[in-house]
């Protein structure tokens, strides 16, 4: 069983930029609409020159089931263009954090201005380096999940750091 253990953070400064080792443009969409009561999301993504199909459990928190499969790039592009509604575009920056890699997603389009850092862990209580630029944790805030950003983009939020304006069970 594939299990993703991940913590999400906002950033308190741009100091991470000088530590970036790789940046890749991502384009992704969802093949299943986010619906209240759904158990999983099905996402198609183009990561640079790679196509990926991803199935992720629709639950909040640090630990979720996730399955990911490489698919032909042409198929991924066709699915994005014909089967998905709104598309998320972002640049993923990789920044080393000691024994971990921090994935920093800088969003474009309707989500421009949002930058979220993710740290994947081997177990829920695993310690990791916490540089000063790693700010407020938003792991439990549904608004920052990509599946939520498709239907409620960052540009539409009235209060960026306030409590969610919708019921997180919708996602």
Question: Could you outline the blueprint of secondary structure elements for this entry?
Answer:
Layout lengths: L2 E9 L10 E9 L9 E8 L2 E8 L5 E9 L1 H10 L5 E10 L2 E8 L7 E6 L13 E4 L8 H6 L20
Antiparallel strand pairs: 1-5, 1-8, 1-9, 2-3, 2-6, 3-4, 4-5, 6-7, 7-8
Question: How does this structure look, described?
Answer:
The chain has 171 residues and is mainly beta. The chain has one domain (3-160): Hypothetical Protein Pfu-838710-001. 9% of the residues lie in helices and 42% in strands. The chain has an eight-stranded antiparallel beta barrel. The longest helix is centred in the middle third of the chain and has 10 residues, at 73-82. It is globular, with a radius of gyration of 16 Å. Residues 162-171 have low confidence and may be disordered.
What's the gist of this structure?
This protein is mainly beta and 171 residues long. 9% of the residues lie in helices and 42% in strands.
Q: What gyration radius follows from the Cα positions, in whole Å?
A: 16 Å
Distance between the termini: 22 Å
| Structural class label | mainly beta
What fold name stands as the CATH topology? Hypothetical Protein Pfu-838710-001
* The CATH fourth-level homologous superfamily: Hypothetical Protein Pfu-838710-001
Helix and strand succession?
EEEEEHEEEEH
Largest sheet: 8 strands, antiparallel, barrel
How many independent structural domains? 1
CATH architecture: Beta Barrel
Helix content: under 10%
Report the portion of residues in β strands. Answer: 35-45%
Mean pLDDT: 89
Number of strands: 9
The poorly predicted ranges are: 162-171
Shape, please?
Answer: globular
Figure out the total of helices.
2
Strand order of the largest sheet: 1-5-4-3-2-6-7-8
């Amino acid at each position: 069983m594939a299990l993703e253990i991940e913590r999400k953070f906002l950033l308190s400064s741009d100091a991470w930029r000088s530590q970036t080792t790789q940046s890749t443009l991502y384009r992704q969409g969802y093949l299943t609409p986010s619906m209240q009561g759904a158990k999983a999301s099905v996402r198609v993504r183009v990561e640079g020159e790679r196509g990926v199909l991803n199935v992720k459990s629709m639950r909040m928190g640090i630990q979720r089931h996730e399955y990911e499969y490489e698919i032909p790039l042409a198929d991924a592009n066709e699915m994005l263009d014909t089967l998905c509604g709104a598309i998320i575009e972002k640049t993923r920056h990789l920044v080393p954090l000691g024994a971990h890699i921090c994935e920093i997603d800088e969003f474009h389009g309707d989500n421009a201005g949002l930058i979220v850092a993710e740290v994947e862990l081997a177990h829920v209580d695993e310690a990791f380096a916490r540089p000063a630029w790693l700010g407020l944790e938003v792991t439990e805030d549904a608004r920052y999940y990509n599946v939520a950003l498709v239907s409620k983009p960052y540009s539409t939020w009235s209060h960026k750091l306030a409590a969610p304006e919708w019921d997180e069970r919708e996602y």
